[in-house]
Specification:
four-stranded antiparallel β-sheet, mainly beta
């Protein structure tokens, strides 16, 4: 009976977390609270420090000293008692009390793990495990998945991570299996399309288990957004290659950014425009700065001092008047998404922050001292 109740609790918690509403951390009078996607303040601004939600939980502190954890209703899941709390991921969070770090679950139960030289957050179902300067992996059951083997393991992305031994890079999955042999002087992040790599002095792309070389390339980027093209540089000019490292768009641009929705920002002269996947300049070069297209088919552009948003025809659909780059109030979040994401864009006007929809309407009709991206 007791076991059945525990299973039921776990199911209810996981289900409620999965369907948890998206909330954004906002700041007013130097205190953090949370709004929903209607712009309503659903958790009052009362926290001296707060984190974004992750899997339905967020770390907060009311006094700036002792941290606890709340759910999306603002209820305490773990009462304030810790000096630090890291992001909740894979069912666990890393907490500090005094000089001791440990992993706990949402019920504040500690996970027993092997002794490690340093504690790392869980990510993609694993956490790093360090002994004698070598790094391995532990799973969410606290057991070793991979004995300490590597000099370095980078953050897992989509179930894969870059690893290094003896100055050579390769890639493993989150079961510890080697999926790219450690044969490379450098390697990019995982994409199902391809992974850039450097072998000796030659750059190329790994796809289908094979390394395709291109001796023209002296720098290359990831296959972002799982697009079919990655930008690469020959001498001082940029173009785009496919997953066999073949030039699809010749290197003739001073600067480029990634393709998204079939268009990429690019510069030939002094100003930014947008090219299609044939390398044709389909939106005229007239912007001081330009970002990739987001959802809603809109991209941030700057003609003068502030940003507006254009559609794929180059029509300005939301007039210039905003800033789009923010520094985080949250300790651990990264704020690298610019433009529209999940239907709304975070923007700033007159040093206040808020969210607009695709018609330029301000979410909830209110500006904040700061606003983080929505998460759940």
């Amino acid at each position: 009976m007791k076991k059945s109740l525990l299973v039921l609790f776990a199911f209810v918690f996981i289900t409620s977390s999965f369907f948890a509403q998206e909330l954004a951390l906002v700041v007013e009078d130097n205190l953090g609270g949370y709004i929903n996607k209607s712009g309503e303040l659903v958790i009052p601004t009362k926290y001296k420090r707060a984190e974004k939600f992750s899997d339905g939980l967020a770390a907060v502190t009311e006094d700036g000293k002792v941290w606890g954890v709340i759910n999306t209703k603002g209820e305490w899941v773990i009462e304030p008692q810790y000096d630090k709390i890291k992001k909740y991921n894979s069912g666990y969070m890393l907490v500090l009390k005094g000089e001791k770090w440990k992993y706990i679950d949402a019920s504040n139960k500690e996970l027993e793990t092997p002794t490690t030289e340093k504690y790392y957050d869980f990510n993609d179902g694993v956490a790093f495990y360090k002994v004698n300067k070598k790094i391995g992996l532990i799973g969410t059951n606290g057991k070793v998945i991979l004995e300490p083997t590597y000099d370095a393991i980078k953050k897992f992305r989509n179930g894969y991570a870059k690893v290094k031994n003896n100055e050579k890079w390769g890639m493993i999955d989150n079961k510890g299996k080697v999926v790219v042999n450690l044969d490379y002087e450098g390697i990019g992040d995982y994409s199902k399309v391809g992974i850039w790599a450097k072998k000796g002095e030659i750059y190329g792309v790994i796809s289908g288990g094979k390394f395709y070389e291109n001796s023209d390339i002296n720098k290359i980027d990831d296959f972002r957004y799982d697009g079919s093209l990655a930008y690469a540089r020959k001498d001082k000019l940029w173009g785009f290659v496919n997953n066999k490292a073949e030039w699809v768009i010749q290197p003739e641009f001073k600067k480029v950014k990634a393709f998204k929705n079939g268009l990429a920002p690019a510069i030939k002269g002094k100003l930014w425009g947008y090219i299609n996947e044939k390398g044709e300049m389909v939106i005229a070069e007239k912007y001081k700065d330009a970002e990739v297209f987001g959802d809603k088919g809109l991209a941030p552009v700057k003609e003068k001092k502030l940003w507006g948003f254009i559609d794929a025809s180059g029509k300005m659909v939301i007039a210039e008047g905003y800033e789009i780059t923010a520094k985080g109030f949250s300790m651990f979040s990264k704020n690298n998404i610019k433009g529209f994401h999940n239907g709304i864009a975070r923007v700033s006007a007159k040093k206040k922050w808020g969210f607009i929809d695709a018609e330029g309407n301000l979410l909830g009709g209110k500006w904040w001292e700061h606003a983080e991206l929505f998460s759940k």
